[in-house]
């Protein structure tokens, strides 16, 4: 997983990138938890998401947002971090100009950033949101949500009570043409201490199902 540095709105951003051996492989961008709470691209769940997409044959980028690790700049309350995500996505697409499939995958604060990016970039075709901060941020911007995705919650999460994510999923599923694959992990808290493998498996199952559905819907 080579280290990469690329230009962001507030200076250089640090990342780790895996380039798939498959020609024109699909792409995935991985988004880490809150910078002020110790969130980095090396977070265990963030790394699990990265590794899972790598194993699925994707070209994958995870990165540190501004002020984290060797990335330049300072935390910007979420606004600048969305711009960082857009810059990371630009870099990933420029490195893979022939790819025609793009996914985003975020955990906690990273899930909020990822869903904001989803609304700004119509080329994104799939998303993963693990423990999105549904009680800390207003997700009403997801109207209309451009596509369905995978939502994962922890049954024992005290940072984001599962009922708050229930409400978000219900709102999304009420939208025309949207189908959220919603999975609640029993006994899991916000850090998913013993559930990294389960998260990886859920992502693998969801992504494979969606890609299979798309292939089956193509005209002969």
From TrEMBL:
Keywords: Hydrolase
Domain spans labelled Xaa-Pro dipeptidyl-peptidase-like: 25-138
GO terms for biological process, alphabetical: proteolysis
Limits of the Peptidase S9 prolyl oligopeptidase catalytic domain: 149-199
InterPro entries assigned to the protein according to its UniProt record, in alphabetical order: AB_hydrolase_fold, Peptidase_S9_cat, Xaa-Pro-like_dom
A Gene Ontology molecular function term of the record: serine-type peptidase activity
Superkingdom, taxonomy of origin: Bacteria
UniProt cross-references to SUPFAM superfamilies, sorted A to Z: alpha/beta-Hydrolases
Keyword Isomerase among UniProt keywords: no
Stored PANTHER family: AB HYDROLASE-1 DOMAIN-CONTAINING PROTEIN (PTHR42103:SF2), ALPHA/BETA-HYDROLASES SUPERFAMILY PROTEIN (PTHR42103)
Protein name: Alpha/beta superfamily hydrolase
